Amino acid sequence: MHGYGTYTDAEGGFYEGEWSQDHYCGRGIESYADGARYEGEFWMSGKHGAGIYRSGTGVEYEGQYARDKMDGEGRYKFADGRSYSGQWSVGHMQGLGKMNWPNGSRYEGSYMNDRKHGEGIFTWPDGRMYHGQWKNGQLDGHGVLVNIDGEEDEQEWSNGKRIGTTTAPVEEENSHAHASAAVPQTPGMASMNTASPEYTTPSHGHHR
Fold first, then answer.
1. Does residue 73 share a domain with residue 51?
2. Is the torsion defined by CA of 44, 49, 51, 53 positive or negative?
């Protein structure tokens, strides 16, 4: 097929748009049987270029793709209310980005393989701020905690644990206190210091 046309697959998926040598190529719209939809640019039947993906469950991505994976600059809205705006590489959050949580907390800094990695700033809804270094999602290296009065506390971390003096424990999402951690957290914000990836590629692969 070459030019403009439509196609419906055996699973109920539908494509309408431009073709080249029997491949989706150019501008088009692809709808999936589960209610998801992508509108944008294609190359060799994969998402490639600028486009908008919307799932049937509240997920939305608007940005750049390369070879059917999120790659370049893009904004991703999670079903749980979080939003990430920044750089992607081969389907992963990679480079500089900003993550916002529904409760008003936010992180701005470097990511690698969907985890905080490098220099970053984490800010709580009440105005407290932590500026420091992360490694594989966990606090690692030098950092400064600034409280709501502007007072600074310099800290050293290694693999998610505070080195030296300990003060207030971290309030984890599961209410477990870690005496070795000195940065107080808003409940539900365990992701400030966790090795778990903040984005996981979905099994159906529509918005990789």
1. yes
2. positive
